[in-house]
Structure formats: structure tokens, C-alpha cells
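Build the 3D complex.
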Amino acid sequence: MATDTTTVTSPRDVPPGKAPAGRRPALRRDGRSAGVFLAPGLAGLALFTLFPTAMALGISLFDWPVFGERSFLGLDNYSHLLHDPVFRRVVLNTALFVVLYVPLNVVVSLGLAVWLGPKIKGRQAFRVLFFIPVMTPMVANVMVWRLLFQPDGLIDSGLQTWFGVHAPNFLGSSSWAMPAIVAMSIWQGFGYNFLVFSAALDQVPQSQLESAQIDGAGALHRFRYVVWPMITPSIFFATTMTLITSFQVFAQPFILTQGGPGVSTQTIVMYVYNQGWQFLNMGLAAAAGWVLFVIIMGLSAIQFIGQKRWVHHDV
Amino acid sequence: MTSKEASDTNSFARKARSGISHTLLIIVAIVFLGPLLYAVSTSLKPADEVFTPAPHLFGSEIRWQNYADAFKFAPFGRYFLNSLFVAVVGTLVVLAASSLSAYAFARLRFWGRDQLFVVFLGTLMVPQEVLIVPMYWLMQSLGWVDSYWALIFPWAFTAFGTFLLRQFFLTVPAELEEAARVDGCGPFGSFFRIMLPLARPALAVLTVFTFISFWGSFLWPLVIINSVEDKGTVPLGLAQFIGQQGTQWNLMMAASILAMLPTVLLVILLQKHLVRGLLVTGLGGR
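Done.
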């Protein structure tokens, strides 16, 4: 083992499976203890993630009522989804949420993170402040915004007092309900990306920024050519994660609008919930869940392929 | 004009600009806090004054009684205890399972390690929504529907913690551990005596994230808990307010504020660790 200290500086440098021949006995001993170290995590993951993932695919091929006879359907659940106008609408609603939410979230969080640069006093307090809704229970946050959006709620009564006009009935109007859900979601969620971007921006060396300034680079130029390349990994990380989680939107429409008016704000996850636990059709719910999974996997794959074009990994 | 001259002549302008910038930031912060302040003010109003016009932050009296009444409206005491139990036990299971496997992936050499780690990472892609139907069926088969175990175990083995802690363990210099091993310390000894104590900041981050995700979890409890009065968690209790005829907004806001308090305190207490933790664990994307 002692040879390691001289040849290896960190375990990252050890190519897998290429340990020198003299290390065989140690390898075997590691193997046995690795089994013990991995047992709880591996067993839990196998039972509660790997097995259910496969099971979901199986269930999606059945007519699987919560109680009663199950019968094999093949791909019928999937073709039902394809032809169900509600499911189509639900996919469109979810896509609309994602298209509005992800770019706005990134712009707001990155903008504020840049604004709150190292020279701002009390930035730690701002960081904590913006992080609070991320950490508080989503349901509690949504309740607060439900009150805010009510007729005679804060927004409406403010407009009445100062401008003498009524606000739209945000949650009861099919054109306002989705923007209202997006606004609420940005309020509650941008703090996470804000913190990620702040942490990344803190690592940009001030000396490089100053030397760029001395060379006559303006603020925009400094951002584009010094800051941006250094934070692209964070931007990539944040957009990918936000994209994935925003497809899973559930609590906001569930509590703000119950998916209404009509089905205008119902999302894919609400559809899964309704099919499974309102209509007790687990097979269809599992199929809808798999469709969501495939969408998420596809988009993540596109993100990962696309990153080569703009993410700088070696600065 | 060179930039040096510019910085001299503009120092006053810069100060003014930073003052304006700061003022704007404070305005942004107040707007941002608005919903929460509104919730607090509503939670202290009498029921018939909830919708008083905008400039009046408070009603004719400040009713602290609403907080007590919220506990009478629904068994929030019970919900809090349930949530606390689930979140604490869940967090402990997550910390134990993921630190052990993270150590194996970061420090031990064994056959198929890298392939297995890819499988671990792959499971991060599976959204909860795909798992929720088979998980319900699994819970039915285990007889766990409507139980605390169902609230805790299905989500206590995600690969997130393993990934996060492995990133941290990789940054610990190998020399530290090698020295201990030469002195006869086995992998378990060096895990418990060297790696775990060093990993405190990363463990703190994982604790916060895990506790909060258990505390705020909504979809799964909604699905798996039938006897809400008995085994319901805080978010389920809050959701009971909706669909009520003539919603009691003041009580609902009191309950929401109470539901937020534990996590707000956690964030304020651990703020420094959070930012640092994001850096050391690579969650900042680096």
C-alpha cells in the first residue's frame, strides 16, 4: 500500500482495472469489504429503484386496476394515451410550463447572481433570503400564493387601491392560470440556481477581471470573455437539472388550480396521479409515467450532446 | 482616456451607482419577501378581515389566537410529529447508506466498480413519477400502505447522496488514509476515524437537503397515506385546507408559516455551510 503514496496523488488518477500486478492481495481484500460497504445502498437501490423501474414498464402493459383482475394489454395503454385528448393537452401544458419556466428561472437567477457580485454589502443575507422558498415546503409556498392570487388578494386589492382596476381572476382564467403558476414557481425555485451561480461566480479570479479591465474591456466584454467561459459548467448543470425537475411539476397546479380551468393547467404528473388514484387505473398511470421518463431522458441526452458546443471543461 | 484615468475620475460616479444598485436590490428583496409578509399579516388577522384593502397590513386586532386555532382546526401537532419522525429517521438512513457506498466508490478497488457506479448514476435519471405506481404496488405487497415505513424507506436509497459524498471523498488526499492503513487500520477504521470526521461539511449539506425533501414531500404521502388524521405529514395537513367551503385563510396562513419555520431556521443556521458545501461537493457544477 505504501507505494501508492509515491505513485498516486489522488484516487482519481488510478485508471480503473489497471492497478499494478503487485497489488493483487489488497485488491481482493478491498473487494470483500466493498461488498459490506455497498450492501445497504445497493440493496435499497435495487429494491426501491431498479426493480420498480422495470416493474413500471411491466405494469404499463396491463389493464391493472388497484383492486381486481389484471389482464395483459400489450401496448394498448400507450395507444390510448396517444389518442386521449386530455393526455395530449396535458403534455402541451407541461411543455408550455417548461418553455416559460426554465429560461426565466435561469435569466433571473443568473442576473441576480451577477448583480450581487463580491462588492455588494450584505450579499450573504440576500443569498439566505432568496434561498428560503427553495427550502420551505412547496405546499406551504403554494398556499401563500393561492391567497395572493385570490380575487381581493394582495395583487388584486393593490391594483384596486392604487389604480382603481381589478386584477384578472388569475387562477380562474384559462389564459392567466398558467402564467400565474409559472410566476409562483419562479419565486419559489430560482434561489437554488442563484446559489449555484453565485458559488461559481465567486471562483472567477478577481485578478483576471482586473487585468481585463486594465486592457480596456467593458463590463459586457468582461462577462462574455472572462466570466462566461468559467461558469458554463454551472450553467449547463443548472439548466439540465431545472429542465428535468420542471417536467415533474405537480404541487403548484394541483393546489393553485386543481389543473383547471377545465384541464388547461393539468400536467403530466397530475395525469399520472389522477389515473392512478382517482380512476384507479394503474396501468395507464404507469404508461404515462414512462412517457414522462422517456421525454426527460431524451432531453437530457440532447443537453449532454449539445454541451460539447458551448461548455468549457478545462478552464 | 485610459482606464486608469477613468477609474479615478469615475470613483464618485461609481459610488453613486453602487448606492443606487444597493437600493434597487433592497426593493427587489422586499418585493420578493412580499408574499411571505402577506402570509404573516394574514395569519394575524380576524377571519372577516382577511381581504381588507391593500395598504392595511394588519386587521383591527392582531390575533395570535389564529395559531392556536389552526391546531384545533386540524391535528397539526400530530402532523408535525409525524413529519419530524419521518424526516429524522429518513435522513439517518440516507446518511448511513450513502456514506458507506460513497466510500466504496471513492476509495476501494473492486471488480466492476466503475460499471456499478454508472448504474448508480443512471438511477438519478428515473423520476419519482415513474416509480410511484410500481412503488405503490410494492408497498401493497409488503403490507406497508398507510405506514411510516412507506413514507421513509422508498426514498431513502437514492444515489444522490452517494454521488455527492463520493465527490467529496475524492478530494481528501489519499496520503491521510494510506498512513492509517500502514498503521494497520482497515477500510472500516479509516472510514469511521478519518473520512467521516473530515466529511462533516458534505454530510451537513446532505443532511439539510435530505431533511428538507422529506419535510416538504407531498405527492408520495398523498398517494400512500389514507388515514391522514393519524399518519399524515405537514404538507398533507396543509392540503386539507383546500376544497374546504369558505376557506379559513387566516388559519391556513398560520399553519403554512408554522410549516416553513423549521426549514427557514435550518437555512439561517447553516447558511455558511450551504454555500461552501455547494462548492466542495461539486453541486456548483464544478
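The CA atoms of residues 152 and 214 of chain B lie 8 Å apart.
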